[in-house]
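Fold it.
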Amino acid sequence: MNRQTNSRRELIKTGMFGAAGLTAFAVVPNVLSAQNTNTANDLKILNGALFYEHQAIWAYSFAAGKLSQSAVGKAVLEIALANQADHKAHRDVLSKVIKDLGGTPVTAQADYLATVTPYIKNGDGNLDTDVNIAKLALALEVDAAIAYGQEAAKLKTPAIITAAASIGSTEASHATVIRSAFKSLGVDIKVIPAAFVSADTRKNWIIKV
């Protein structure tokens, strides 16, 4: 499946990796050796994760330019910049670990609009208003958390599995912060709408346009 033309929402259905991050990756170079038979497997997953970190960073920058100067727009921007900072940290650590394992980190594309368009078509957000941009960010973060859990099970190295569990929760926290913002604006929703973030509960987390 071509990562450049399919959305993260679609990739969840096939088990492709959606996002990755920081916490336990710091110890990975000390755990893995050049002879580790699991390296090729984990490199593939890590590079898939890096692709989507690039996507997330681009998406937040792209959407930021479309936000208004209203109170809502400024609130959405503040959340977006905080979430984007996490994704940048994830990107940097992923790139380093991939290099340490002897791999070549996937490079960022000029844009990722093709991977975001399916969300818009599905009503999982849009780029036309501040509120719909927040809904789009929510959908991307929810799918990141879901995909993280799916792909973590395929990792072979304990240190990276530990990182996946930690960073998956970070992606879920991004979604929770966005839902909390909607709640503070008077939208009658639960900040945490389900006990799990999974493909089965996705519909509970997403706020449709």
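The longest helix spans residues 71-100.
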